[in-house]
Each structure stands twice: as C-alpha cells, then as structure tokens.
Amino acid sequence: VQLVESGGGVVRPGGSLRLSCVASGFDFKSATISWVRRAPGKGPERVSRLSPSGGATYSTDSVKGRFAISRDDAKSTVYLQMNSLKPEDTAVYYCTAGHYWGQGTQVTVTS
Fold it and tell me: Which of 32, 41, 75, 102 is the most exposed place for a label (fewest CB within 10 A)?
C-alpha cells in the first residue's frame, strides 16, 4: 500500500492550494479516504473523509465552506481543494486509508 501526497507549500492568508494523494496497492474504488492534519504541537485532526460512493464529510467546522474533497477513481487520486486559507490551517496534511498513512505534505499559511 502506498499513499503519496503532493501540492503543499507556502501561501499567504486568503490563498488557495490543492493537495493530491495518489494511491496504489489496494482497491482504491472501494476505500474510504481521509485527509488528516497535524499542526505544530498538536495532535492529529481529521479534516475530511470521502466514501467510495462519493459522500463527503468535513469533521472540522473551521474548514466547512473552505475545503472540498474529491476523488478520481480512474487516477486512484484524492484531492483536497483548500480555499481562503488561514494561518491556523498550517500543518502537515496526510492522506489516510484505514490504518495506512502517506508521508504528508507541509502547508504553511503566513503573511
């Protein structure tokens, strides 16, 4: 199983980023995929989850209306579109499937 995230970077408040997670080694189309973030000095926080049927949930009120999760089964890829970014969104963002985690991608929001 492999989950490879990309798309992180440094952005100013109000900016946007799109994270990607390319999956391999398991039945992607049948899997629920989540994005989890870990901010400096804090524990992991699940941001969003997407079921195989496409049903999305956003676990954190602070991202509702700003973040959108989607998937492309043909590419075995899950995306997290992040708009109106805030400094408190700064974290390492991980793609997860069950107990499998990717290596993470750093998102830094700073002026």
Answer: 41
